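INFO  loader      accepted 1 record
INFO  loader      residues=383
INFO  predictor   begin
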Amino acid sequence: MVYCGAVLFVPKGFLPGHGLGYGQDLMYTIRHGVSVGISRRYWRFVWLILLISCGPFLCSDPISKSDSTYPPSTAAVPVFTTPSTFGPNKAIVPSPQVRPRVVLGTYRVGRHEELAYELSIAPCDSDECIFQIRLLAGNAEVSSIDMGWAKASGKASRETAAESSGLGDPLDVEKKSAWSTGEEEANVLTTATPVRLTSQLNGLLVGQRAGFERFKRHYDLYVAVGKKLIRAWTFQEGAGPTWSTVEVREKGGGGPQSVLLFDGFRYPSNDQPDWLYFTVYSWNSSKNELQSISGDPMVTALIAGPYDTVAEARAAHASAGCLSGFWVLTSGAFLQLHPGKFVLAAITARTPQAQRKLEEVRTCAPKFSVSLLDSRYRQPESN
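INFO  predictor   done
INFO  writer      dumping tokens
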């Protein structure tokens, strides 16, 4: 705010037409409604000191967009003013519009439970909003957890997820439904799958894939314990050329389901074979957590080889496009094979998937020798 001082000198008879006389008061109105009273009984000469509050149109240069102190972003923001009693109008910049909550899906907590899980994008006033899991009783929120691995940008849309989504058996070709937000590097693909942990309790397995050309994946299992929502299990891919997928497997008879995690690292050189882990998890009700099952799990594998070197195995791998789901592994990963060699292998927890893949390979690479093997699988550090 800038103040300007003005001094007005009024000599006798200076104001024509206002009838200055003894015993009379003169009311002379100057600009902006400032009234000046002059009485000859008290003053022959009148000095009036005026303090005038000046806006940018009177005593200061108007702000221009070329001024270095002018915020560039202000030019595009509509500004409104409100009257002020003690000074010029004050500018008010409107707050950003708050996006409403976007519900992606709701899932029952239990067979006879009124509670439900909700996967949603929380309300926010920025370009990126958090994903959120809420525990609801009717429409009321009982508990919630913010998902902090990735954020949603733009609109959410339904799409069919490819095999890179991180949901399903490694050899499963069935398309999965997913929610997609953001474009290119900001793209996040989100899937949600109920998991039957006990006969009375379901969990919600949420998988996310982020990125554009080099994907990364993250998984969380959310469970309602009483009326509190907990994150009972989480897995996140590390750095480098990693890959992973999760599968929910039935045990039969409507009993508890298992969570299968396949995760691997494809070495970019011929120095080492690939690493591929296969872990089976089940629910521990006493600890309220998902725990890995000890021992070597059973797998059905497609096997090509053996090869004497990693380089030979990689050359065979590159010879046909239908071998993209195969890994260069040590033969010792399979208890039914002799150690010390290298093989091309694709593993699955579903025998029908392996049989379908075998027919595909025989069609696309008829000279390529591939066999079907049921075997115990040993983790990379054990073979």
